Structure prediction request, 419 residues.
Amino acid sequence: MTALRHLSLALLCWAVAQAAKYDLYHAASIDLPDVTPDKVVVETGRLGSSPQLPQPAPSQQVQLLQKQGVTRSEKKRQQVTLVLVVSQSSSDTLPRLLASLARWRENSVRELLLVVPRAEKRSFETLFSKRMHGSVWDAWMKHSDAKLFKEYIHVWFQARFPVRTVAEEDVLPEERELEALVPQDEKAEPGGQGVRKRMDMLLRIGIAKHVTTEFYVTLKKNVVATRSFGYSDFVTAAGKARVQGEKHFGQHPERYQAAAAVLKATNCVPLAEDPVLGVTPAVVPTKVARGLMSTLPGLWAGELGQQTWDVVLMKLLNTTTHEKHEWAERTNLWNEYSLLYVSSCAQGIRDEIFQKPAAIDTVGLYSIAHDDAAIAGSFSGDSHSRPVFVVASDDMAPELASRDLLQFIAGRRGSLRGA
Prediction:
């Protein structure tokens, strides 16, 4: 009887242990993020008096990092966030961009933040699920290049990395009010920047609130990665953001004069010979963008009252109060990068957070292609002697700007137009 009782007790303990293992397994399997291995954190420990399971040997990559004295936390810190402002109507080049990023990144990307209209947020989220559905996907499948889009998405899924969608309204809560503040002469393209462009500029600054890395890299729909890129392509060994290196007075000096007027920092206008940020793509130090947002309202509280940073910028677009001023005093000619660069000076951290002019190399972050041949040519030559990105210029015909680059991105020939 005693033996039977002991046997029953042993069977009961075994059943409880099996149930615990089952529950533990399923608890660990629920709602796990669908991410790449470098995003998974494994924690070990003891369950009751059970012996700790032997841990697998570190991977070759981890062993190499350990030999070099690089810890996992340092490796994680040496990542950037990619940022793209996009909508369904402008997403026709997104498959190509995604494929190029997945193909060429070297574990240097923490995540891609897609800033989208709130009404389209769900559609973009489902786009990156395993089922690939939603209105964005449906629109792609009705496109004349649907077959090509599928090829690009296939490349993306081979080496995808985390994507997070953020609603525009969560970046700029007063978005509708901001659009109403855009002056009429700004709305009339080509004379003005246009409402959409101005909103995109603000979004590239405001997204800093959602970024979890020290630096983020802004992208736009007509950008393509042309070669392998790592953290050092965006941030120097000294921890400074790499700068495109456009010459100040050769590339829109009014933008920097206007930024200095907006920030009331006329002593921070770059010198005529100083290379500056340029346009998108650009490397943005997260703390500079956050500093800009926090200090701007106080600079104009006397003239405009208590306003948020984005409302201040939009109200300063109104040129009517500046008709008697010289152009250098006007506050309506800024763009996001002139504001960020001048703001870093006003915050007293420009030289510690951006490359100094003398240290800027000649390669740059991007090249601008004005024709089909120039885009294809961006993939040729020594990879270290060419920029990370090529940008199809705004004056290119849409069919050229959306050229099939599958053979360069995936290493296999697609259906190149004119090939």
In short: Residues 18-68, 320-328, 413-419 have pLDDT under 50 and may be disordered. The longest strand covers residues 109-116. The chain has 20 helices and ten strands.
